[in-house]
Specification:
D-Amino Acid Oxidase, Chain A, domain 2, eight-stranded mixed β-sheet
Length: about 375
């Protein structure tokens, strides 16, 4: 039991809120979890996401601190999943990166970025260059359709929906008090003398003015006869595509990235672009059945990096996970729990994770 165990309130029951509430309850805290939606809200970013764990691939669009957090997450996810006591699909068979001949310039730029990451973090597995035969050996279903590619060893993915369900069961087993359809803000708990954690994502915009939404669109299809075994990324100068194979012949195809907090359904244009790109990776997607098309708005701060913010004694906001939610959530969790136990986090320093404090806030 944590020496600082006491009553804790968690606002927001997305990925971060569920992970944190479970960990707090395991370490002896009495926990109340509040969320503005129902338990299985289909509109949440955590529900829609592809849940790929690809720190090296993401290094092309983010900072080294996020890459370090992602590497931490890859090692922590098996431990976190094992503690849930329910089956959750977790795979660590690397990422395949492909491109068409006309996009060779984009591939060259991507490779240069990966080389820079490798120089800064030599402990990462080396990127492997592939010719057409090597692509076919790695993914026989693709064959020799692509003249070249890259293989990023050690990267992975998990099934986000299995994970969210397992976390919900864990919360119930740990007797966390669950308050669905109950929107709350930190101001509603001014008299609360225990811990308060704000994990509301975009729901916290009223209390964190720097937050904005970045829209993404994702398509899930069923293609049971299509045997791709690992996440595949297709480089493109405007919309890099990913295809993440999930259990049961399900594939998650995404994702557009639009500077907008518009939460309306996916556009025809995005659907055409995503499905056409997937078809060029494998013609078998032409016979896939579209299960759903979803749009999400991911909570993002000005610099596209996550942050912790102290609002006062034992009052902490966690936000800005952007497109990296599943990748960095374990690192965020461990940094927060260090704050709970000792008042600060050495992991936050290691990950260059920004820790802010509102004016006059006392930890």
């Amino acid at each position: 039991m944590s020496r600082s165990a006491r009553h804790a309130v968690v606002l927001g029951a997305g990925l971060m809120g569920r992970l944190l509430a479970c960990e707090l309850a395991r370490t002896g805290h009495t926990v109340d979890l509040y969320d503005a939606s129902e338990a299985n809200s289909p509109a949440s970013a955590a529900h829609v996401a592809a849940a790929m764990l690809a720190p090296l691939a993401e290094s092309a669009v983010t900072e080294l601190g996020v890459v370090r957090m992602g590497c931490h997450g890859l090692s922590r996810w098996p431990e976190l999943i094992a503690a849930l006591g329910a089956p959750v699909f977790f795979q660590q068979q690397g990422t395949l990166v492909l491109w068409h001949r006309q996009d060779a310039a984009e591939a060259s730029r991507f490779q240069q970025q990966l080389a820079g990451t490798a120089r800064a973090m030599p402990q990462l597995p080396a990127v492997e260059s592939l010719d057409a035969r090597a692509v076919a050996r790695l993914e026989p279903a693709i064959g020799e359709r692509f003249a070249q590619g890259l293989y990023l060893p050690g990267e992975g993915q998990l099934d986000n929906r299995e994970l969210l369900a397992a976390l919900l069961q864990c919360l119930q087993n740990l007797h966390v008090a669950l308050h669905w359809n109950s929107p709350r803000s930190p101001a509603d708990f001014d008299d609360h003398d225990g811990w308060l954690f704000d994990c509301r994502g975009l729901g916290a915009r009223g209390d964190w003015s720097a937050l904005r939404g970045v829209r993404g669109e994702v398509i899930r299809v069923h293609a049971p006869d299509l045997a791709l075994t690992r996440p595949t990324r297709l480089l493109h100068p405007r919309y890099p595509l990913y295809i993440a194979p999930k259990p049961g012949g399900v594939f998650v195809i995404g994702a557009t990235e639009i500077e907008s907090d518009d939460g309306s359904p996916a556009s025809v244009r995005s659907a055409l672009e995503l499905l056409s790109a997937a078809y060029t990776v494998h013609p078998g997607f032409a016979e896939a059945r579209v299960m759903e098309m979803s749009a999400q708005c991911r909570p993002t701060l000005r610099d596209n990096l996550p942050a912790l913010r102290w609002l006062g004694p034992r009052r902490l906001q966690i936000n800005g996970l952007y497109r990296h939610g599943y990748l960095i959530a374990p690192a965020m969790l461990d940094a927060v729990m260090q704050c709970v136990d000792i008042g600060h986090s050495a992991l936050a320093d290691q990950f260059a994770l920004r820790v802010e404090s509102v004016t006059g806030a006392i930890r």
